[in-house]
Structure formats: structure tokens, C-alpha cells
Amino acid sequence: MSLAGKVAIVTGSGRGLGLAYAQELARQGASVVINDVDEATAAEAVASITDAGGQATAVVAPVGPSETAKQLVDAAFDAYGRLDILVTNAGVLRDTVLWKMSDDDFDTVINVHLRGTFTCVREAAIRMREQGEGGRIICIGSPTGQRGNFGQTNYAAAKAGIVGMVRTWALELKKAGITANAVIPVAATAMTATVPYFHAAVEADAKGEPMPEFFRSGLGFGTAADVAPLIAYLASEEAAGISGQAIGVGGDRLQLWSHPEPVESLFHEGGWDAEALIAEAGPVIAANLQSVGEKSPPLPEELQPPQA
């Protein structure tokens, strides 16, 4: 697999998962536009690529506004003359339960994740279509968007919306040779570092030690480096026939997420009234309730977090 001659933008790539994506794309030969809201962080990310012999430049700006999207795409063309790959990774968290979530908590997360993905993909698609050589759109989802998670109304809405947009873009951009896919990472991040359940895995990662097999194989939970190769693969010519998909990766596990499909279809002549719903539909609905949320097995005793 080679990305030599390709140019990529990775939003939110100053650190964490985004940085791992950018570094892997560069390792495979792509020139990369780094993005972060902190100038020093962005500069360090650029240096980590250029010091290894790659090419990178930075745009310091918050994702969300159309102006930032244009700035990112312009930077790719100004520095490298083209754009082939966009990875929309930038995001923020404002976790709290529904009845405590403020308008600002909701709007901030939606603006960065959902609107930011939309504005960046729109700008990239315009320029890729003008360029006329196809392209790769890779948007970062989350298990929360696929399954839901307590305390993450805003984040779940944004990540589910991103996957919905990806399916639509796969249809709209097909004729231009531009693929659109979602990646669902499960990895040690600043967010998982605060969750006691993942303490042993996050601690091992911080020490540069292998994560326990319980996490890597049992949960499909790993490091940022475990996710990055999938990003590079979807950006490559080898993945030209893959579009509109949601693909999960973490630790030793790769998951292909299904698209929503009807579980059952019922018909009632003349339409459904209350009596028919109670008598006919109710029992079928009750027998086919779909699960919500991620189900995690109990931690083995040796992996329990230290008690406060």
C-alpha cells in the first residue's frame, strides 16, 4: 500500500487518535495538513512527521465554521497543489445526563462533530470534484453513535448523524470516484482515561506496555496505533470499491457494522388503529425489542482499578 503523491487533511490531529492517523498517512507517503486549535500542539505534530522524513503543514483553527473548512482545503492546495484524502476527526465532549445538559453543551458538540464534518466534507468534495481524480472521505464515528451511551445525548446524536451523512455521500459522490466511509474506533483516549473500567489498559498504554488480552481480544479495545492502519487502507487505491460503510476497529478486532434494516414488517388492511396495534403489533414489537448501549463483561479481579 502506498499513498505517495497523495495529499491528506486530518482534522483534530494535534494529538491522540488524530495524530496517529496523520502520522500513519505520512508514513505511507502522503503529505498531511495537520489541524488543531493550539498552535504549539500543531507545531509538535508537524515536527513529528517532518522529523521522520515526511511532509506536513498546519492550520490552527477550530473545526465547525465554513471558514475553517475553506482554510484547510486552501492550505492543502497552497502547500501541495492538490487534495486526495480528508479525515474528519476533530471533536469535543460535554458529557452529562439529559436533564442537566445545557443548550451550550448540546450546541458545542453538535457544532464541532456534526457541522464540522459537514462543512469540511462539503469543501473537500467541491475541490475534489473540480480536480477530477476521485478522492477519499473518512469520517470518524463512535460506538456511542451506533449503540447509545449514558450521559452522551449530544455526542450520540452527532456520531449517529455522521454515519447517516456518510451513507448519503457515498451515493452522491460515487460518480466522481470519491468514496465516503466511517471508522468506529475503540481505543485509549483522553476520554477513556477517565473511565475506571479501562484503568489497566490505559495505564499499560501510558507505560508503553502491551495491553492485557482481556481488552485487546475480549473487548476489541486497543491503542491509537491499532486504528491508524484502517485509515490508511481506506485512503488507498486498494479500497477504491469500498464506500458507504461503517467499519469498527480496536485492539485485535475489526467489525463491519450493518446498516439499519427492518426486523419485522407487519401489514393491517386499512391501516393501523389502536385496537390493531394492541392486539397484533404489540406482541410482535415486544418479542423483537432491540438492545441499546454497549455491554461490557465484568473485569477480572487482577484488572480491577485501584480503590480510592
UniProtKB/TrEMBL annotation:
Molecular function GO labels: oxidoreductase activity
Classification via Pfam families: adh_short
Key words, A-Z: Oxidoreductase
Ranges annotated as spanning the membrane: none
Domain called Ketoreductase: residue spans: 6-189
Name this polypeptide is given: Dehydrogenase
Organism the protein comes from: Leucobacter massiliensis
Family annotation (InterPro entries): KR_dom, NAD(P)-bd_dom_sf, Peroxisomal_Beta-Oxidation, Sc_DH/Rdtase_CS, SDR_fam
Gene3D superfamilies: NAD(P)-binding Rossmann-like Domain
PANTHER family in alphabetical order: DEHYDROGENASES, SHORT CHAIN, SCP2 DOMAIN-CONTAINING PROTEIN
Family statement drawn from the similarity comment of this UniProt entry: Belongs to the short-chain dehydrogenases/reductases (SDR) family.
Domain of life per record: Bacteria
